[in-house]
Amino acid sequence: MFKVAIIGTGLPWKTEGSTGFGMSRAHAPGYVKSGKCEIVALADLKEANMAAFNVELCEGKARQYTDYHAMLAAERPDIVSIATWPHLHAEMVIAAADAGVRAIHCEKPMAGTFGEARRMAAVCAERGVQLTFNHQRRHLPTFQTAKRLLAERAIGELTRLEGSCSNMLDWGTHWLNMFQMLNGESTPVWVMGQVDYRKPHQVYGVIHDTDGMCLVGYENGVHGLLCTGETAEKAVGCAIKAIGTEGTLEIHNTAPHLRLRKGSVLEEWTGPETEGGLHGNFANHDNVVDLVNALESGTKPLCDVSNALATTEIIYACYESARRRGRIELPLTIDDHPLAELVQSGAYPATAP
């Protein structure tokens, strides 16, 4: 049995005092579902939250710590789950890797700066630690079916991907990660973008755009366009759109979630049931099961750090494009958060016109 420790228990989503989705509550059932793990320890600054989590998800058996460093030293876990705010991810991932854990599963987005994201990936590679990030939609049937249809050339040769969501970093990390999966993991080679910051906007402690456009060029010639902001879906017409030489595949937030357009004729996709649509907590559980199985077998997990880092590079390259006012050739070598630097320098007044 693998020994698992969780950093950041928090509170359940939409309960009084909660500050997020309580994603550790989506990790824990996955370890149980795997049948190969035991959650032996928890770390959180608030003992009451940790105690409630322990009773609810660990039968009260996990040992509790308010200092995650002390937990890592005392418990020597095989796997660590990290469900804290992004600005804490790097220090926690690196501490876990230095403590000798074998696998780390961390929430998205990767980090509050690109330098932190690169450093996490580098340290874990040096230590031989399996590092995954929770882009759980890779496990949803809706996206798996879309991936299969594109591989089968249901719309001919893929030429462009479009997407719409609320912001580039917190939500956009999901859609850009889906672009990668749907595009066969082709390497992004350049990014050009622009973002706006009309009002103070932070998500989990990190500055985010209020509106934006991100154009990505991939090695295989496909282009990707992500639009963000309150009116982004009007620009794209759906959540994600794949355009090919012989048709269009649309992924919608409302049922039917997959819609296939052949030429000028719109056909609703009537294939297998897609449980959960574009959401579904079971995908979080399946993501954990996958990383446990990968650790056991030595294979590459579906949400490996490699695709998370490529996604994060696109996001920060978009922000860097706005800062430089030009196209950014990859790889990206900056360490900071360009939008945060622009805001702090006064480039955006952060007030509505």
Give the helix tally. 11
Question: What is the count of distinct domains?
Answer: 2
What's the overall geometry?
Answer: globular
Let me know the average pLDDT. 93
State the CATH architecture of the largest domain: 2-Layer Sandwich
Describe the sheet with the most strands.
9 strands, mixed
Strand line-up across the major sheet:
16-15-14-13-7-12-11-8-17
List SSEs in N-to-C order: EHEHEHEHEHEHEHEEEEEHEEEEHHEH
Task: Kindly report the name of the CATH homologous superfamily of the largest domain.
Answer: Dihydrodipicolinate Reductase, domain 2
Question: Which CATH first-tier class of the largest domain would you pick?
Answer: Alpha Beta
What is the helix fraction of residues, given as a range? 25-40%
The strand count comes to 17
CATH topology of the largest domain: Dihydrodipicolinate Reductase, domain 2
Question: How large a portion of the residues is in β-strands, by DSSP E?
Answer: 15-25%
Question: What class do helices, strands and sheet pairing give?
Answer: alpha/beta
How far is the N terminus from the C terminus? 58 Å
Q: Provide the gyration radius in Å.
A: 20 Å
In terms of per-residue confidence, which ranges show pLDDT below 50 for 5 or more consecutive residues?
Answer: none
InterPro entries: Gfo/Idh/MocA-like_OxRdtase_N, Gfo/Idh/MocA_oxidrdct_glycsds, GFO_IDH_MocA-like_dom, NAD(P)-bd_dom_sf
Domain GFO/IDH/MocA-like oxidoreductase: 168-250
Protein name: Putative dehydrogenase
GO molecular function: nucleotide binding; oxidoreductase activity
